[in-house]
Amino acid sequence: xxxxxxxxTSAMGLEAIVAKEVRSLGFDCQVENGRITFNxxxxxxxxxxxxxxxxxRIRLKVGEFKATSFDELxxxxxxxxxxxxxxxxxxxxxxxxxVKSKLFSVSDCQAIVKKAIVDRLKHHYKKNGWFEENGPLFxxxxxxxxxxxxxxxxxxxSGLHKRGYRxxxxxxxxxxxxxxxxxxxxxxxxxRPLVDPFCGSGTIPIEAALIGQNIAPGFNREFVSExxxxxxxxxWDEARVEVEDLANYDQPLDITGTDIDHRLVNIAxxxxxxxxxGDLITFKQMRVQDFTTQKEYGVLVxxxxxxxxxxxKAAVQKxxxxxxQAFADLDTWSIYMLTSEEEFETYxxxxxxxxxxxxxxxxxxxxxxxxxxxxxxxx
Length: 379
Hints:
RNA-binding, THUMP_dom, single chain, transferase, methyltransferase, seven-stranded mixed sheet
């Protein structure tokens, strides 16, 4: 098997979590802004796509070089071994982006990269006419940053946040990758209760259940690289058998999602059943102010409304106050809330044990963490 340079792309602020996941799969990795690079064979492509919960997608690096002129971009792209990856009938659209680079016209860069690949393939396949492009899909990206061109092929297809279970959603759904990260950043273990009091369409409880039973997030979907002729179907079959073998379906879970909107609660139930987790998660309509529990050492994790719209702010701040009052006596519970409200601690009525800067889409947020008492160790 060949060895490839692979890149797990990541949302800002999640790089360390993605890197931890990559290492847990058995790969050494390097962490940069927005990307985690590692080496692996065809099995690594299958494994990372199936298992990484917090990465955006897995890219295969074809080449990286300095390019300050279109001629340089053309010649260095053409010098790359495209025939190793693209069959004669490959469909290979080229997308691009450019930041702080002399070659700032993205459309021109895309056209030049496309032409260079065509020239290389024409020579290799001894072909003069057009390529049909009616075969497997290879989505190529040229990304220029400070005059360095990075050329990659996307191995995922749809972004990895598209798990395949979302049949419905609310107005501002939390990305599945971020929801998984929010759970992984808590001190929750599957033997403890977990509650999301702002569950919306159920993303956090569903991701927690997948984590709790060690179910691979990609178990329910397909990936574009499954159609590539140089990755043996047997590799994907074996990777999926491993996913089944490692899942712990017998792990009991105590996971609850509540929301003030009954329509969203119904959507959350549908999504959970689509994920095969409908019997494991309890969903109910409830205001956060009304939350009470006799259970101990649980975890509350949520993405409450931020009050971004004009006129909503006062109502949201009032709700934060009432939430702080409702949670005040839960001294054995750990509480984790993601919000863009910079004065959240003031309204909530308590300073966080720790906070972490994260981005929810393009919104800069803080993840406020309140650690509860640790369970007493049994003698």
